[in-house]
Amino acid sequence: MKSKKWLPANVGSYPDRHGKIRYRWRKKGFKSYAFKSAPGTEAFLQELRACEDGSAAPAIEPGAGRIKTGTFDDLLCRYYRSPDFLDPGPRTQTVYRGVLERWRARVGKSGKRYGEALVRDLHARHVEKMLAELLPHRTAANMLRKRLSALMKFAVRIDMASTNPVAATRPFKVEGKGFYTWSEEDIAAYEARHPLGTTARLAFDLMLWTGQRGGDARVMGPGHIRERRLVVTQEKTGVVVSLPILAPLAESILATPLRGLVFVMSEHSRPYTPKGFGNKVRQWCDEAGLPRCSAHGLRKAAARRFAEAGCSNQQIKAWTGHTTDSEVARYTAAANQQVLSDAAGEQLLANLRERLATTTDKPLKGGA
To answer: What DSSP line would sit under 117-137, residue for residue?
Structure first.
């Protein structure tokens, strides 16, 4: 396989039996992957991300051919090939696989890995002990509980288990509100440190003025622009959003030199990996003196701004790509209470005035 300098790392070309040039991802310790799309296309970048995340080209597991039937090793191999696991985006698959693989590798009191245990032998008391092993990290324990529950639901469906013992357990109560939501002061501090025309500012503007996740902002490029709109297929959920390019974002894009197929390129003129982009945003925030701020917190700030502007849940979902009101509520929890209460009060008085105007000429007390 020949490697060309203009191709991404671990990607090379080779002629097939018809003499046509094909492209393949290869890395030691991982399965190879033949690309279906040509380099330079959005579809190719999606396939490349799937290889780098380990979903399209998973690690080679020594001894995988000697898995014992009915064990969790057996169940996980089947689960990773099912729609239950494959329907979420590549990034989500990587997170879920990481949780399950760390659990599978843990060794129980018997001296065997959890992966070697028989699925039919799992009971609720075992699950509770496994979750307790992760304390005091309650969030990690709850994440494992969710993934094990999904795995056991799949096991029931394929007749590897008769019940889901995880359902009988309870999650741990977690205090806190998740990722910190950027305030307007934080936003101003970042903009002061990273002026227009810098990569740091463009990455920031792509997240703030679209409300998208960092993983989606890092792959946005000219190819996503359709008639002055950004059309994005969200990596995590597969939801397609079409967003108008607001003036501040347009100004930032035009002020920053384009160096490749995506807007945000690394110092080596390559697109950032998911982990690399997150680390870089962390660095840019630290440079601005914002240790609490993160890429995901900026997405929450965008949702907060929409809420403070009086936008409905449906309008906010049209931007963020959320599908339920409860998800929006989590993201807009940091909306300024005073702004919202003032707006609600004005709407209430306006409604009462309108109703009274149709029945009497008497003015409303306290009204203008």
So the answer is: SBGGG--HHHHHHHHHTTTT-
User: Reading across the β-sheet that carries 240-244, which strands appear in turn?
Assistant: 225-226, 229-233, 240-244
How do residues 79-102 score in pLDDT, each as one tens digit?
999 999 988 877 788 889 999 999
Cα distances (angstroms) measured from residue 162 to each of 128, 151, 153, 157, 182? 19, 13, 10, 9, 47
3-state secondary structure of 350: helix
Write down the domain spans for the chain: 1-60, 63-175, 184-335
Asked if 319 and 241 count as a contact pair (C-beta separation under 8 A), the reply is yes
Residue 307 to residue 18: CA distance in whole angstroms: 57
Neighbours of 296 (CB within 10 A): 19
CA distance 108 to 118: 13
Block residue for tokens 């998740």: 178
Among 10, 31, 32, 35, CA closest to 21:
35
CB neighbour class for 167 (10 Å; exposed up to 12, middle 13-18, buried from 19): exposed
SS3 string, 46-63, reads HHHHHHHHCCCCCECCCC
Q: Please, what is the angle between helix 90-105 and helix 138-157, to 10°? A: 100
Q: What is the CATH number assigned to the segment(s) 184-335?
A: 1.10.443.10
Write down the architecture of domain 63-175 according to CATH.
Answer: Orthogonal Bundle (1.10)
Dist CA 94 CA 353 (whole Å): 56
pTM for the complete prediction? Answer: 0.60
Residue pLDDT, tens place only, 11-55? 998 888 888 888 998 888 788 888 888 888 888 888 888 888 776
Backbone angles phi, psi at 225, to 5 degrees: -90, 125
Is there a common fold for 63-175 and 184-335?
Answer: no
